[in-house]
Amino acid sequence: MLNLKLAPIRLGLCFLLIVIFSSFKGDKARQTFEIGKEHFLLNGKPFQIRCGELHFARVPKPYWRHRLKMMRSLGMNTVCAYLFWNFHERSPGTFKWNEEADIAAFCKMAQEEGLWVILRPGPYTCAEWEMGGLPWWLLKYDDIALRSKDLRYIAACQNYLKQVGKVLAPLQITQGGPILMVQVENEYGFYADDADYMGIMRKAISDAGFNVPLFACNPPYHLKKGFRKDLFQVVNFGTNPQEAFKSLREVQSEGPLMCGEFYSGWFDTWGTPHNYGKIDQYLKDMEYMLKNGNSFSIYMAHGGSSFGFWAGADRPFKPDVSSYDYGAPVSEAGLPTEKFFKTRALISRYLMPGEPALPPPPSTDPAITFKSVSLTNFAPLFENLPAPTTTTSPKTMEYYDQAQGSILYRTTLPSGPACTLKIGAVHDFAWIYINGENLGVMDRRKRNFQLTIPARAKETRVDILVHAMGRINFGPEVHDRKGLVSPIQFVDSQQKVLMVGDWNVYNLSYSEEMLKGLKYGKKIDQGVTPGIWKGEFSLSKTGDTYLDLSKWGKGVVWVNGHCLGRFWNIGPTQTMYLPGPWLKKGVNEVRILDLLGPEVAELRGLEQPILNDLHPEKDFTRSKRPEVVFNQENILPIYQGKFPDSDKMQSISFPQSGKGRYFCFAALSSFSNDVATIAELDLLDATGKPISHQNWTIGYVSSEELIKENGGAENAIDGQTFNFWSSEWSYKKALYPHYLVIDLGREEVVTGLKYIPKAGSSSAGRVKEYKIFLGNEIVRKKN
Ligand code: GLA
What we know:
It is a single chain. By secondary structure, the protein is of the alpha+beta class. A hairpin with a 2-residue loop joins strand 19 (429-434) and strand 20. Helix 5 packs parallel to helix 6 and helix 8 runs parallel beside helix 9. The longest helix has 24 residues, at 7-30. It starts with 6 loop residues before the first helix and ends with a strand.
C-alpha cells in the first residue's frame, strides 16, 4: 500500500536518482578524444596512450577478464584489439559475434577494468593469423586481387565493416564506450602504394558509423606509400624510436608521435628457435618513449595461442607455431614474466600527473599435471574417407568449399615405364602413395614438386595426400590456395604427358562432424599410417596444463572438442597450452591427428611449457637445405659496393643489369667486424619495380645462426624488416665473406636492389663492402 505521507519524499528521491543517472550518462556522452597538435587529447587534456596489444581470439573467453587485469597491472591504460574478419564471417554473409567471438563483451569488460580500446578491424590484419584475417572463401574467385580495388573484394569488405559498425560503433567514446580510435587496414605500405584504396577502406569504416579518429600504421620505410592526409599516421617498429619518429615527421609534420606496434619479442615459425626478445633494448626504447611523452602499443603485451586452425604462415613459406607466446611480458598462459615486472617498474616511474599507482597483478591458479596415458583407439585416414568428388581436373580446396585440413587426390596410372609426377605447386605438404605404399614427400618449404614414379607392370593406384598449414598472412602470398595447384601431370622420359583415369577428390576438413563419424579400431603396430588417435585422461582437479607432444609427429590436437592447434616434432614448441576452463573433473577426451605417426602413442600434462626445443633431425624431408654445389668462384660480380654505416634503407641501381636464376649477395666485411646481417632484400626488375618474392627460396647460404637466435637466411626475403638473416655466431664464428644466394625460381633481369639493414642504432652486423653475382650456374643441385 502506498504511504501517502512518504510519497512526495519517494518521488523526490526518484527525481534525484534520475538527475544523478542522467548526469552520469551525460558525463559519459561528454567524453571526447581528439588528435591535438602535439598530444592526444582526452576530454581536452593531454593523454599519453600506453597500450597493450591483446587478441581476444587468442585467449579463452573465461580468461579475458584476467588478462585485462594483467594489462592494467602492467601499466597499460588502453588495449589494442585486432578483429580477425575470418573469425566473424566464417561463411559469406553469416556473422558470429557471440561466445568466443563476442568483441562487444570484450570491449565492455575492458572498460570495466579501466582500459580504453583501440580497435583494429582490418579488413586485413596480418598478425600471424590464417590469411591475415581475410576469409578463405574470397579465394573461390580464381582471379580475385585481395587488398586492391577489385570490386568483389571491396564489396565483401564493405559488408563486413558495416556489421562491425553495428556491433561496435555504439561502444565508441563518443557514445559512452571505451573505443578511442579505429585503425584502417594494416601496414598497407608493405603491400602496395594505392592511396585511393586506403580512401575506400577509410570511407567504409566511417560509413559504418565510426566517428572517432581514424588512423593508419606502417613501418618507417613505408610511411609514404598509400599515405593520405585524412588518415592520422602512426609508425610501427621494434627499436630505435628516435629514427622511426623522424621518418614519421617527414610525412606528418605535427600531431602526437605514436608507435603503433612496439615489438616486445617476435613470433615463432616451425623449425626455427623461439624468440625471447631483447629485454634491455626493449626497456631502453620504451623509456625513451615514456620520457618524451610518446604514445605506444606493445605488440604483444600478451600473445596467447593460435588455437584451432588459426595460425598463419610467413612468406615465402614458414608456417607459424600454435603458441603465440611472442616473448611478451605476459606469457602464453597469462603469467607475469621478468619482462612484465621490469615493464611495470619502468612505467610506474612515468605515470601521468595524478595517476594512481598500478594495481598488483591478479592471482593465477597453479598449473596441474597428469601422468602418461596411452591412446589406443586409432582411425586410419584412408579407412575413413568421405564420399569423393570425381573430376578430370582436380582443383584446390577452396573450389570444394573446404576451409582447412587435408585433401586426398586419387587416380589410376596405366602400366608403363618409370615416369615423373610434376605438380605446379603443393600447398603445403604431400605424401605420395603407389598402391598404398608411401613413395615420397613433396614439401612447399623446398619447392620440390616432382617425384619419380617407378615402372608399373599393371594399372596402379596413385594417392596424393596433401596437408595444409595456415594460409600465408603477409605479402601478395595471402592468395594462398591449399591443396594441389595445377598443372598435375605425369610425364614420360620424352616429357610427353600421360593420360590418367579420372581423379577422386576427398575433402578431409577435420570438422566436428567428420571427427564424430570416424571409425576407430585398435592400433597394434606403430607404422606411419596417417590417422586420428583417441584416448582419455582423468583429473581430480582442473587447471592449466601443457600437453607434451614431443613423442608425436605432426598434426592437430583436440581436447573435449576444443581444438588446441597444430604440433610438429621439429619444434621449437614441444608442448601445447591446454587452458583449465576446457577441462573437467573426471574423464577428459583427447584426439590427435598424426600424419607421421608417434614414436610412442602416449600423452601427459606438464607444469611448464617447452617452447624452445628444436629437432631438425626429425624433419621428415630431412636436411634443412637442399644439398647444392656452390659455384661462384668463376663468375664475375655484376656489382661491387660499400654501404654507409646507417640503418636506413639503401637503394642501389646497377650500371648494367644482370640476368639469371640465382642472385648471390656476398658480404665482404661489416662495420663491427662481427657477424653479417640483412633485414630485407628486394631486387628490382627492368622497370625498377621490386620483383615478387613468390617463387623465391634460399638457394644457398654459407653461414646462418640457427641455434641461439632465429637468424635463418629466409628472414632476408620474407618481407618483414624486424627479423634478419645473421651469419653464425653461437657455435662458431664463420669467416668473411658470407654468401647468401636467392633462387629466384626462374631467370630474372635484375637492375638493382633495396637493402634494409638490421634496425637499431648500433653498427653491429651492418654490412660494409659487398659484391653481387647473378647467373644460372651459381648453384647446382647435387644429384
Ligand atoms: C606486422 C603486423 C602485425 C604482426 C607483426 C609481426 O607488424 O602489423 O600484425 O604480423 O608484423 O608479429
